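For reproducibility, we list the full input for the adenosine monophosphate complex.
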Amino acid sequence: MFGVYGDPEAATLTYLGLYALQHRGQEGAGIVSAKNGDLKRFVGVGLVSDVFPKNKQHRLERLDGDIAIGHVRYSTFGTSTLKNVQPLAADYAKGSVALCHNGNLVNAGSLREELEADGAIFQSTTDSEVVIHLMARSKCERFADAIAEALTRAIGAYSLVATNGEELVAVRDPLGFRPLWIGRLGDAYIFASETCALDIINAEWVREVEPGEVVVARHDGLESFKPFPPVQPRPCIFEFVYVARPDSHIFGRSVDEVRKQLGRNLAKTAPVDADIVMAVPDSSNQVALGYSHESGIPFDMGFIRNHYVGRTFIEPDQSIRDFGVKIKLNPARTAIEGKRIVLVDDSIVRGTTSKKIIKMLRRCGVKEIHFRISCPPIINSCHYGIDTPRRERLIASQMDADEIREYLGVDSLVFQTLEGMVSATGFTPSDFCLACFNNDYPTPTPQDFQSNRKARRHEDISQELGIVG
Ligand code: AMP
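The corresponding predicted structure, in tokenized form, follows.
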């Protein structure tokens, strides 16, 4: 997610910012720009380079104005179709609005039901659209207040940027699940999910939007207010483990440093005699380096990654994902043949990627594989914007570590401990959402809302029938 306020090249800067944020979503990309309150939108499915290719430069050139917001999508709510690609945009009684949202709302289903019962017609199946409907119904005069009022009804994860063509509003939910940065480029204000997107346009890092904070960029500067009851923030630790780029800073830390420390901690708790340490590139590179530094076992590039394919897992369709593993990684035979290797990966989700990777290594004549995972077993689905499958499909919810080791066909398998993972960040467990590892969800889950709705319906029927108790 990216936003610019106050630069005549707003859309082009946003395009560059989205390029740096491509790892956060590869199914769709889009930009809305604003000039004198008029919004122009271009969105499409695919990578930023598919949606805004060089031979169709007019798409970007059309997006004039000195405000722009942009988004790269990967579907954690709603399908992967054009109508769900953000920024979403709409006209309402007070003008136009465009919005980009990162994260998932856990009560989107019940809010949508309520809005639809009141006559609302939805254009998409995303959870983000409920924010637009709630905002349009607000009696607040100011755009930022209307957004904030809408969000007081939303529960879950939202880092968002929105514009009405006159100002740009950036908000982070009170638990601060997803990152969001403020930057400065000359007189312009920049908003970005990660600092790597500020770097690409040489913007200065100002600070992170705080959990529960609303920041409004307008011609006379930045305004900030906190409309939500304060709570202990619980950012997503999986941002450090997998999602964010290592050259970014998020939640007050360098992702690169956290990942190296994850590797050092793993080397201390799960040492092994081996010839080389290698990573499953790219998200495990720094972890493998940390393991190598701590253990003294040399790091080698056992896999060569084809950089022209995206993150396979992100593709929503299983058949595409299976094919993707093969075209993405190829073992460098001479680096690994006959060797005892420590293979480092960031996480095991379904186990399908690991299984294929290990088969490939075995075929190359690797002598021993000692698999080390930089996070603990993932045993619960995420409801806050990470694409984890249903619980039953998470291998660690079905098998213990020894069964997984046998299933994958490795000589040893050790996961990072929860303490080892958290301590790598320098924070404490209560500073994070760790729900996918420990089942401690910081909000009610979508299932809770569903069962409440069922209970309410039951209540209604009971009242109609005059049943008491
Ligand atoms: P699998 O165990 O086959 O489901 O895939 C696990 C691999 O996918 C890990 O090695 C990660 O690099 C990557 N991964 C983990 N979580 C995600 C996610 N939410 N989105 C995309 N890729 C992921």
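The first helix runs from residue 10 to 20. Confidence is low (pLDDT under 50) at residues 460-469. Both points were considered when choosing residues for closer inspection.
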